[in-house]
Structures are given as C-alpha cells and as structure tokens.
Amino acid sequence: MAALDPGIQGEFNLTNDQPIEIEAFLWDIFRRLGIAVPEKTLSCKKALIVATAIEWFYKIFLPHCEPPITRFGIGVLAYTKTFNVAKALKILGPPSVSLEQGVEEFVRWQKSQMP
Fold it and tell me: What is the 3-state secondary structure (H, E, C) of 5-74?
C-alpha cells in the first residue's frame, strides 16, 4: 500500500484529472440523495463577510469548535482550481474507479447511512 511505503513521500493531488463544474456536480449528488437544491444564492463577497463573522464568533465564544462555514470553504466552492496530478499518476497509477462509479458508490453508501 502506498500509504505505508516509506519511499513515497510528499504531497499528492488526488483527482481523476477530469474537469468538472462544481455546482452542477454537487446539485446532481443532492438530487440523487433527495436533498433539495438551494434556490437562493449569495454573492461570494457577502458569503465571505458572513464566513468571517462566523469564524470570529467561534474564535471568541466557541474556540474548541469548528465553525460550520469558513472563508476557506467559500473559496473551495467559489473559485476555479486546477490541480497537477502528474505525480500521483506516475507513482500511484490511474484511479481504480471512474468519477461516475465513485459518485454512485458514495450515493449508495450515504443512503445507507440515512435514517
């Protein structure tokens, strides 16, 4: 296993190297799980302001807890990203399942966890 191989070191970007549009991807998963897709939107600027306020609130009043929303989380969803997966492909090889297979397995597992 790669995780236990002392010869494998450093950081890896683990993706299937397939570009996706994150909102459509998430909404598809929500629909498969029977979760309502959000109908309202909030600008990135406003979302960052709200996240900043929530982070400060948690830092002051609940320092032992993780805030439910962070500026980092907003950034993950709001901005495009490109990851270089060459190292992972070279050392670990291609993914063992397709994106669609992975989503299907996740949805099946998630449904089994729902009451």
Answer: CCCCCCCCCCCCCCCCCHHHHHHHHHHHHCCCCCCCCCCHHHHHHHHHHHHHHHHHHCCCCCCCCCHHHH
Query: What is the distance between the alpha carbons of residues 87 and 90, in angstroms, rounded to a whole number?
Result: 5
- Give CA–CA dist 2/15, Å, rounded: 16
Report CA torsion sign: 88, 89, 93, 99: positive
Whether the model clears a pTM of 0.70, i.e. scores above it, the answer is yes
What gap in Å lies between CA 47 and CA 80, rounded to an integer?
A: 16
pLDDT digit string (tens) for the chain, length 115 residues: 777 888 888 899 988 888 999 999 999 999 999 999 999 999 999 999 999 999 999 999 999 999 999 999 999 999 998 999 999 999 989 999 999 999 999 999 999 998 8
